[in-house]
Specification:
By secondary structure, the protein is an alpha/beta fold. The protein has two domains: about 1-135 and about 275-320, 3-Layer(aba) Sandwich (Rossmann fold), CATH 3.40.50; about 140-275, Rossmann fold, CATH 3.40.50. It is about 40% helix and about 15% strand. A hairpin with a 2-residue loop joins β10 and β11. α1 (about 15-30) packs parallel to α9 (about 280-295) and α5 packs across α6. It is elongated. The structure holds 6-O-phosphono-beta-D-fructofuranose. 6-O-phosphono-beta-D-fructofuranose binds near residues 101, 126 and 170.
Length: about 350
């Protein structure tokens, strides 16, 4: 068989580990792999590179993706969809492995619906793909955010300030939740929990009274109302660029105004997406990449490899896309236990 592989959507640590696993697992059974560059754009425009085993040596621990990525939606225009089908035929691809989040896997499902052999690998630092316990990229991103929070703690403590750390995560609060839990935030704001200014101010006041400073973690996806300066720009899948709303900066302004505590904010943005994958992400990406090849070898096209408990399993792409896996109430309850 000839495998094609692509990485689409926002990059995250572990993509190279997954590409390596696809190539090595396929090679073990005598199959070859080629890579399409920059996500679905590479398939649409027929941008290919061979991926012999030597091409994936030394990439297990490297951040980003050696194939490049983009947020190209290949099915937004029928003319582009036709190009994708033509490139698959021209490159003699027997099965495509699409590595990505909800958008990339939705496009994979569309391709499967058009009768093409495709399997998926879920990834995203947001951890919001349904059907899998965790996505790779997430733990590495949270480790960066926790490190940032610990650094902010030093300076907040020294200056007796309130500091708000704004983290990514789109409309799921997983990154904020685990950053707040692991970093010991006094308040953590998630898109899943309607914003309540009184509760936030109470936490900030209590923390400042107890030890002279306060730390707040805010997810970029929380709703604080329209923001001046935001362009409302959207990507090809229709997603607003949430960081432009600068909710962290707005919260710091509100906290200072209401409490009189000098306040600052930090938006770590894409810093969360770079760097080497943490142990958990390396292993998960490796298992999922190999798992996707196993699905293909078993003829289970139209499925995506997922983590369920301790096991890697295959589920239909349709089960994994279209719904955002949000933070459930029991996690919110745990988070509340530690709020000031
Ligand atoms: O989907 C991953 C993600 O990092 C989100 O958390 C964030 O909102 C978005 O990508 C940023 O997208 P871009 O890199 O296109 O600015």
């Amino acid at each position: 068989m000839r495998f094609g592989v692509l990485t689409g959507g926002g990059d995250c640590p572990g993509l190279n580990a997954a590409i390596r696993a696809v190539v090595r697992r396929a090679a073990r059974s005598g199959h070859e792999t080629v890579g399409f560059l920059d996500g679905w754009k590479g398939l649409r425009d027929d941008l290919v590179r061979p991926l012999p085993v030597e091409a994936v040596q030394g990439i297990l621990n490297r951040g980003g993706t050696i194939l490049g990525s983009s947020r190209t939606n290949p099915f937004a225009k029928e003319a582009d969809a036709a190009k994708v089908l033509a490139a698959l035929a021209k490159e003699r691809i027997d099965v495509l492995v699409a590595i990505g989040g909800d958008d990339t896997l939705s496009a994979a499902r569309e391709l499967a619906g058009r009768g093409r052999p495709v399997v998926g690998v879920p990834k995203t630092m947001d951890n919001d793909v349904a059907g899998t316990d965790w996505t790779f990229g997430f733990h590495s991103a949270v480790a960066v955010a926790v490190d940032a929070l610990e650094r902010l703690r030093d300076t907040a403590d020294s200056h007796h300030r309130a500091i708000v750390l704004e983290v990514m995560g789109r409309h799921a609060g997983w990154v904020a939740l685990l950053t707040g839990l692991a970093g010991g935030a006094d308040a953590t704001l998630l898109p899943e929990v309607p914003y309540d200014e009184e509760t936030l101010l109470r936490s900030v006041r209590a923390a400042v009274a107890a030890r002279g400073y306060a730390l707040v973690v805010a997810s970029e996806g929380i709703e604080l109302g329209p923001r001046k300066g935001a362009t409302g720009a959207r990507d090809e899948f229709g997603h607003e660029l949430l960081r432009e709303r600068e909710v962290g900066a707005e919260l710091a302004r509100r906290i200072q105004e209401a409490t009189g505590v000098e306040s600052r904010s930090a938006q770590i943005g894409h810093i969360q997406r770079g760097g080497p994958p943490e142990l958990f992400d390396r292993v998960l990406a490796t298992r999922l990449g190999a798992g996707a090849v196993d699905l293909a070898l078993a003829g289970r096209f139209g499925e995506v490899a997922v983590l369920r408990g301790e096991r890697i399993e295959g589920i239909p792409l349709a089960e994994a896309v279209g719904t955002t896996k949000t933070v459930p109430p029991e996690w919110v309850d745990l988070m509340r236990t530690f709020e000031a």
